[in-house]
Amino acid sequence: MNLTERYNKPTPKFFRTLRNIGIALAATGGAILAAPISLPALVLTIAGYLTVAGTVATTVSQAVVADIDDEGLDDE
């Protein structure tokens, strides 16, 4: 299975939820980093970590595929 096939297969419900949380984290961190006001270094460091963690969680969660034979698979 190549990467394109993997990304086109259905994702289990838990990982769809985790993907959405990762997207929210990355968006929040990116918004804080892009803020036009001056923020303390600690806040910017935490925002950087949020962005990286959200991006990684989103990417990994999207790459998980469900087997067709799973009993608990929810169709979208």
Automatic annotation (TrEMBL):
| Residue intervals passing through the bilayer | 21-50
Task: Indicate whether Transmembrane appears among the record's keywords.
Answer: yes
Q: Does the keyword Membrane apply?
A: yes
Please provide the record's keywords in A-Z order: Membrane, Transmembrane, Transmembrane helix
Name by which UniProt lists this protein? Holin
